[in-house]
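Protocol step 4 of 6: record predicted structures for both targets in the notebook before any analysis. Target 1:
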Amino acid sequence: MLLLTILYLVGMFTLLVVAHELGHMWVAKRFKMKVEEFAVGIGPLLARLWRGRDGTLYTLRALPLGGFVKIAGMMPDEAHVQGSFQSKPLYARFLTVLAGPVASILFGFILFVLIGITAGLPSPEKPLLQVKLVMPDTPAQQAGLRIGDILLSINGEQVKSIEQATEIIRAHPNKPITLELQRDGERLRITVVPREEEVTENGTTKRIGRIGVLWNHARQREPLGTAIVHAAYMTVAMTFGVVDGLRRLIFGQGNIHEVGSVISIASATNAMARLGFAEVATFAAQFSVMLGIINLLPIPVLDGGYLLIFTIEALRRRKLSPEAMARVQMAGLVIVLMIFITVFSLDIYKLLTGKLIR
């Protein structure tokens, strides 16, 4: 399983980054920018695959971790270079940078469509008694529930539907219940105490119990037209979900444990692998959309940072000086480094305390 998870993780990361960089390259070429190299992977050169008629060299690099596109004249003082990025009008540079995040979101949509017509998309009308996700800092996580667990009974009573399971859990706020589960072909019992929460239903306030799991749903293959509609809905929903999550984190309303580094991504990939390739592909589609949105954050060195700089240049009606650009990029690099250290440290804490997605 570990080797399979590594293969999934490396393949997913490379595929999503290559799709992102393809967006940059495609628009750059539409504006006659000179694209010097498009690489799959990073690090030392492994192979020169071919050189296009427009002079672009397509290469394979030694480390299969993403990729990159090299456009001539990206530095502020290289406007004199023929066909360079800096020699093009502001709108061309803006759209070239914007194309990366858009390509990520579009690629997520395409993956959703492909999954819909092959393995099928999850059907809300067909819930399964299988754990799809264990939310962080919840009774379910504290009790040791894992993704892929199949619920058999609660307090000795056989469970036949999600509705029945939900009704029993809701009826036991702050009271221990015993779940009988099937995990990797074996049966086990886990005691969990549903957390009491106050909800308002039909104008009546109630106190109910929740354990913090999302249940899996059966997949249903769809014709192309239906798959496109559902994929568009999932892409839009994912986009708004990521934006709302970022908003809550920025204003201190979110759960910091929902943020993670490559450790959390690897843990989630491993968990999805236990549910099958279709779940890994769905996770990749969701991650691609998330990658596109996060890249739009107005932080220098991210695409959104460059878009912010171009917007400022449009308002000032002149470019930032090379010195000013260097200072802005250094500030952005410091910000990104601080964020990376924070989320990586948080992941180490979650790893040591058993709070990673499992």
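Target 2:
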Amino acid sequence: MKLIFRWLINTLALLAAAYLIPGFHVDTFYAALIAALVLGLVNAIIRPFLLILTLPATIVTLGLFIFVVNALMLWLMSTVVKGVTIDGFVPAFMTAIFLWVVGLFTNMLIHHAEES
């Protein structure tokens, strides 16, 4: 159930990011749904390898380079999913930060619900 909840929240977050961030576009709800699924798969499969490869840069920047890795994961997702376009690195970076904030609140919400 938590997985479906996270998928729906990430879908809505992608739609909100498309509305708020210039240069990030999502055509339809269906495209956002597929994009959230693909982004989850990319983050589960490819992101760990990239984090290991970029570990020195992440240490030097005190962890801030992870946002660059997240932006690259968004760019990769946008090349796979039709209906999602990113106009450059800055919109991808801003979207990565936005999705991080949404994920932070989602984790707090789920953690709070488990405690009750």
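Step 5 preliminary note on target 2. The two ends are 16 Å apart (CA to CA). The chain has one domain: 2-115.
Proceed to step 6 after PI sign-off.
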